[in-house]
């Protein structure tokens, strides 16, 4: 059985990505949750991950310590699951927007950090953050326009690209970001997934436990 080392569900967007892929695969796995911002957090993570970061996927003696690398490994383990689109052109686009999410949108990350339980309204964002929001909205809007006949995800069926953008749907909901219709419908669909609902519920329980 896979073991997945993750951080707080309320805060760890990177942990959500491979966790969601495993859930969508309906593949059993053991969660190893580690709390962030504790005096021994780094030392505890190093017991599992040589980079000192999470998530990390443990498969027998193999350790994979990057979200995208984990997702790629799962795509190879389960080729029939279609974690990348079947068509070569769609697959190239999916990889491009996944890489863009993996390495970009720094203003969004800094100014809209993942906080699942938070709810804000009436916020204003600086120019760089607005540009990131607009770019993501454009990606969602365009891909849903092109693939809406194939299913409700970015490329019709669920892919790694959806997992990479799943935390953004949570961010947009928390920070009250307005989206055009197709992009909003996509975000609403992602948030309604049973796996995403489970993540949100467990993030809330986690925070309630801290406050008690």
TrEMBL record:
Keywords: Transferase
Domain GST N-terminal residues, every copy: 2-82
Span of the signal peptide: none
One GO BP annotation of this record: L-phenylalanine catabolic process
Gene3D superfamilies: 1.20.1050.10, Glutaredoxin (3.40.30.10)
Alphabetized GO MF terms: glutathione transferase activity; maleylacetoacetate isomerase activity
Name by which UniProt lists this protein: Glutathione S-transferase
Organism: Craterilacuibacter sinensis
Lineage: Bacteria, Pseudomonadati, Pseudomonadota, Betaproteobacteria, Neisseriales
């Amino acid at each position: 059985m896979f073991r997945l080392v993750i951080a707080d569900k309320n805060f760890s967007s990177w942990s959500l990505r491979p966790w969601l892929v495993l859930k969508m695969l309906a593949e059993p796995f053991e969660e190893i949750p580690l709390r962030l911002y504790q005096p021994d957090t780094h030392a505890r993570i190093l017991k599992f991950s040589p980079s000192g970061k999470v998530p990390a996927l443990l498969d027998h003696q193999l350790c994979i310590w990057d979200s995208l690398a984990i997702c790629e490994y799962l795509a190879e383990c389960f080729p029939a699951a279609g974690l990348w689109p079947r068509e070569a052109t769609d697959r190239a686009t999916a990889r491009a927007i996944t890489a863009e999410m993996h390495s970009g949108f720094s203003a969004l990350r800094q100014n809209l950090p993942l906080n699942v339980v938070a709810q804000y309204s009436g916020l204003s964002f600086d120019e760089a953050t607005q540009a990131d929001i607009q770019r993501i909205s454009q990606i969602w809007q365009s891909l849903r326009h092109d693939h809406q006949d194939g299913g409700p995800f970015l490329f019709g069926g669920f892919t790694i690209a959806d997992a990479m953008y799943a935390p953004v749907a949570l961010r947009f909901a928390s920070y009250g970001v307005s989206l055009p219709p197709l992009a909003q419908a996509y975000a609403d669909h992602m948030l309604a997934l049973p796996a995403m609902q489970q993540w949100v519920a467990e993030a809330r329980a986690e925070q309630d436990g801290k406050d008690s």
